[in-house]
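R.M. (postdoc): so does anyone remember the format we settled on? I'll just put the C-alpha cells first.
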C-alpha cells in the first residue's frame, strides 16, 4: 500500500494522471459526437493522416506535434470538402488522405538527415512523459471545447443528426461541420501523447460505446463516457506502472476489457428481467 501512494510523489506520475483525466473528458465530448454521427472512420483517417505532418516536421526541424496538428486540420477539413464538393464518396476521401498521410510521413522520416527519430512515442504514446506545459495546453483546449459544446449544443445536435432540416431552419450547417472537423483533428493530435496514433481511435469510441449500453441520450452519454474513459485510463496507467508495460496499449486493453465486462453485466441484467420473478409451486 505504501508503494501505491509513494508513486504520487513523482511529478511525472501526477502529470500522467491529470493528463488521463483531461484527455478522458475531451475524448468523451468529441468522441460522443463522432460515434453519434457515425463518422468513426473519419477520425481514423485524420489520426493516420497526421503522421504525414509528424514526418514533415521532423524533416524541417519543427515540433512534430505542430506538424501533426496542421496536417490533421487540413486532412479533416479536406475530407469534409472533398465529400461535399468534390463528388467523391466520404469513405473514398478518407482512404485517400489516410494512405497519403502515412506515405508522406514515412518518406519524410526516411529523408530526415542524421538518426532516425524514435517513432514509438507517436505510434503508441507515452503518457508518463507529459510535461506541465503540455498539461496546461490540454486543459486550455479541453475548456475551450467544453465552452463550444455548451454554447452551441443545440445547433451541434441538429446538424449532427439532421443536417437537411437544420439547413432549412437557417442553421449554418457547413460552419458547424467544419468547426467540429477542426476540433476533432486537434483533439486527436493532443491525445496522441497519451495513447499514440495507432490507439487513439479507441479512446474516442470505446468509452462512448460503453456509455451507450445505458443510455442513448446525447447529453447523458458525454458524462458517462468521461467516467468510463477516466476509469480505464487511470487503471491502465497504474497497471502499466506496476507491470512495466506500455501505458497507451495498457489503457486501451483495459478500456476494451471494461466494455466487455459491462456488456456482459447488461446482458445478464436484461436476461434476468425477461425471466421475471420465479414461480412458487405449492407442495
Amino acid at each position: 500500500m505504501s508503494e501505491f501512494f509513494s508513486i504520487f510523489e513523482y511529478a511525472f506520475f501526477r502529470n500522467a494522471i491529470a493528463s488521463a483525466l483531461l484527455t478522458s473528458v475531451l475524448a468523451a465530448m468529441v468522441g460522443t459526437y463522432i460515434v453519434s454521427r457515425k463518422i468513426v472512420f473519419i477520425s481514423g483517417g485524420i489520426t493516420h493522416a497526421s503522421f504525414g505532418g509528424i514526418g514533415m516536421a521532423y524533416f524541417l526541424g519543427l515540433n512534430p506535434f505542430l506538424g501533426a496538428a496542421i496536417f490533421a486540420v487540413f486532412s479533416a477539413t479536406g475530407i469534409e470538402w472533398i465529400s461535399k464538393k468534390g463528388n467523391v464518396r466520404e469513405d473514398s476521401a478518407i482512404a485517400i488522405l489516410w494512405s497519403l498521410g502515412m506515405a508522406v510521413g514515412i518518406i519524410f522520416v526516411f529523408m530526415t538527415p542524421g538518426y532516425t527519430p524514435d517513432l514509438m512515442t507517436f505510434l503508441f504514446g507515452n503518457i508518463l512523459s507529459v510535461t506541465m506545459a503540455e498539461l496546461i495546453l490540454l486543459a486550455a483546449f479541453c475548456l475551450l471545447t467544453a465552452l463550444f459544446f455548451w454554447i452551441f449544443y443545440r445547433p451541434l445536435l441538429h446538424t449532427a443528426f439532421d443536417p437537411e432540416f437544420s439547413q432549412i431552419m437557417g442553421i449554418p450547417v457547413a460552419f458547424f461541420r467544419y468547426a467540429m472537423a477542426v476540433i476533432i483533428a486537434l483533439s486527436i493530435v493532443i491525445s496522441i501523447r497519451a495513447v499514440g496514433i495507432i490507439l487513439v481511435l479507441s479512446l474516442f469510441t470505446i468509452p462512448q460505446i460503453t456509455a451507450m449500453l445505458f443510455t442513448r441520450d446525447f447529453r447523458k452519454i458525454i458524462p458517462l463516457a468521461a467516467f468510463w474513459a477516466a476509469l480505464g485510463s487511470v487503471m491502465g496507467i497504474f497497471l502499466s506502472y506496476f507491470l512495466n508495460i506500455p501505458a497507451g496499449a495498457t489503457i486501451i486493453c483495459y478500456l476494451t476489457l471494461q466494455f466487455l465486462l459491462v456488456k456482459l453485466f447488461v446482458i445478464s441484467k436484461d436476461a434476468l428481467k425477461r425471466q421475471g420473478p420465479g414461480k412458487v409451486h405449492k407442495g
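R.M.: ...and that's the designed sequence above, right after the C-alpha cells. Also worth knowing: Confidence is low (pLDDT under 50) at residues 279-283. Residues 258 and 264 are 10 Å apart (CA to CA).
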